[in-house]
Automatic annotation (TrEMBL):
PROSITE patterns: ZF_RING_2 (PS50089). Residues 57-100 form the RING-type domain. Residues 91-172 are annotated as: Disordered. Transmembrane segments: none annotated. Residues 160-172 have a biased composition (Acidic residues). GO terms for molecular function: cullin family protein binding; ubiquitin protein ligase activity; zinc ion binding. GO terms for cellular component: anaphase-promoting complex. Residues 98-112, 133-158 have a biased composition (Basic and acidic residues). It holds the Pfam family zf-ANAPC11. This is Anaphase-promoting complex subunit 11. InterPro entries: RING-box_E3_Ubiquitin_Ligase, RING-H2_APC11, Znf_RING, Znf_RING/FYVE/PHD.
């Protein structure tokens, strides 16, 4: 019997790994799991917008990498856009909306993430701490200074020391 496939419609399903197991939240979850055995049904929703983690925050249209989740040291998880909007409000006082502790983004270490039987990573690393406004300004200023120096070098015709060493010359 011969079968001919006329059309193929693949369907994929993904889910954020929001577990609070100690080996997944490096240093921040207590080793004995105290306070993490909540069996509430609200664990799969953002504490700010109340949308499912697999869905999107109110500002996004498509779930995935453009609408990532962000973990706090307090082990609470939110859509990144929801948390950024919350932190920007004056009333937030830079605190977690769930327990009012000062907000500190948890660092999910790649060597502590779960792996498959062939040791391949199951998840990607969650975003680390967001830079402060001052750090962003300093970084922008240093990039601008670097661009300005590059433009001056191009105008003057000078080259960096060692730049000519890496150039290849055609033997013809």
């Amino acid at each position: 019997m011969k079968v001919t496939i006329k059309s193929y419609h693949p369907v994929a399903y993904w889910k954020w790994d929001t577990s609070t197991e100690p080996h997944k939240l490096y240093h921040y979850a207590s080793p004995d799991g105290d306070g993490m055995d909540d069996d509430d049904e609200d664990e799969d929703v953002c504490g700010i917008c109340q949308n499912a983690y697999e869905g999107t925050c109110p500002e996004c249209r498509v779930p995935g990498d453009d609408c990532p989740l962000i973990w706090g040291e307090c082990t609470h998880i939110f859509h990144m856009h929801c948390l950024l909007k919350w932190i920007d409000t004056e009333s937030s006082k830079q605190q977690c909306p769930m327990d009012r502790r000062p907000w500190v983004t948890a660092d999910r270490k790649p060597d502590k993430l779960p792996t498959t039987t062939d040791r391949a990573p199951v998840a990607t690393v969650a975003p680390g701490p967001l830079p402060t406004e001052e750090e962003r300004r300093q970084e922008d200023a240093s990039h601008e200074e670097e661009r300005r120096r590059d433009m001056e070098m191009e105008r003057s015709g000078e080259a960096d020391v060692g730049e000519a060493d890496s150039m290849e010359v055609d033997g013809n």
